[in-house]
Amino acid sequence: MGQLHFRLAHVDDAAAIALLARRVVRRWIVAEQPPEGVRALEETLSTPAIRERLRAGQRIHLAFVDGVLAGLAAVRDDSHVSQFLVGTRYQGQGIGRRLWSRVRRDCMRRAGTQVFTLNASRGAMPFYQRLGFVRDDDPQRKPGKVVATPMIYWVDGCPWSRVSHDSRHPCATARRGA
Ligand SMILES: CC(C)(COP(=O)(O)OP(=O)(O)OC[C@H]1O[C@@H](n2cnc3c(N)ncnc32)[C@H](O)[C@@H]1OP(=O)(O)O)[C@@H](O)C(=O)NCCC(=O)NCCS
User: Fold this and answer.
1) Residue nearest atom 9 of ligand 1, based on CA coordinates
2) Domain residue spans in the chain?
3) CB contact set of 56 (below 8 Å; sequence gap of 6+)
4) Fewest CB atoms within 10 Å of the CB: 5, 51, 86, 156?
5) Phi and psi for 141 in degrees, rounded to 5?
6) Which tens digits make up the pLDDT trace of 27-67?
7) What is the secondary structure of 4-71 as a DSSP string?
8) pLDDT confidence of residue 138
């Protein structure tokens, strides 16, 4: 891989972010979505929508390889990862793990975050499990138009594992699979 560097997005990055996001989503995510999910994704990932969120202060961590945008991770409220993707040709080289480490550190520094959530596409679940996320069965997390699996990450490890040794708990399953 070429020279890797990271920085936060500026409003001027919106078009490049939209281009990468739409390419990756079309290649990896659209096939598993109903039409309303595809429409919701296309709207969320349009240049004006991204520009608007950046103007409103959203933090999007960007990864560049030799100056070319290769991956991104967007966060809401210093705790919910709303977009996470790496360009197809750059996948499997550790960029996703490095982006996650930056998101985690940034949110913890800014807000003392201890719990992170996200909605995982089917193909990305093994990646998130590898990072320590587990499936979140909290009924409060209502499904949206985009079909995805709610996942959760505790900075200090799953709190239930300290009070319960129930081997059916998702954390126990994640530990067995790790
Ligand atoms: C999912 C995605 C973000 C991962 O980024 P990446 O840069 O390819 O991942 P990395 O190379 O940093 O992998 C990190 C770890 O996860 C593991 N991993 C990644 N994909 C995996 C898979 N499909 N199955 C099992 N393990 C996987 C790697 O082996 C690596 O393990 P290690 O660091 O312990 O050795 C990227 O592949 C992607 O954008 N996919 C398509 C879009 C998508 O689905 N985005 C998520 C939307 S919710």
Assistant:
1) 96
2) 4-177
3) none
4) 156
5) -85, 95
6) 999 999 999 999 999 999 999 999 999 999 999 999 999 99
7) EEEEE--GGGHHHHHHHHHHHHHHHTGGGS-HHHHHHHHHHTSHHHHHHHHHTT-EEEEEEETTEEEE
8) 83
Measured from CB, residues less than 6 Å from any atom of ligand 1 are 24, 28-29, 84-86, 91-97, 120-121, 123-124, 126-127, 130
Q: Could you give the C-alpha distances from 63 to 25, 81, 118, in angstroms and in order?
A: 17, 16, 19
Q: What is the reported pTM?
A: 0.92
Pair 85, 25: CB distance under 8 Å: yes
- Which residue has the least CA distance to atom 37 on ligand 1? 91
What fold is seen in the domain 4-177?
Aminopeptidase (3.40.630)
CA proximity to 84, closest of 38, 120, 33, 30: 120
By C-alpha distance, which of 110, 88, 91, 111 is closest to 99?
A: 91
Confidence of residue 160 (pLDDT cuts 50, 70, 90): confident
Say yes or no to pLDDT of 126 above 80: yes
Tokens linked to 47: 């240049």
Instruction: Report the percentage of the chain scoring pLDDT > 70.
Output: 90
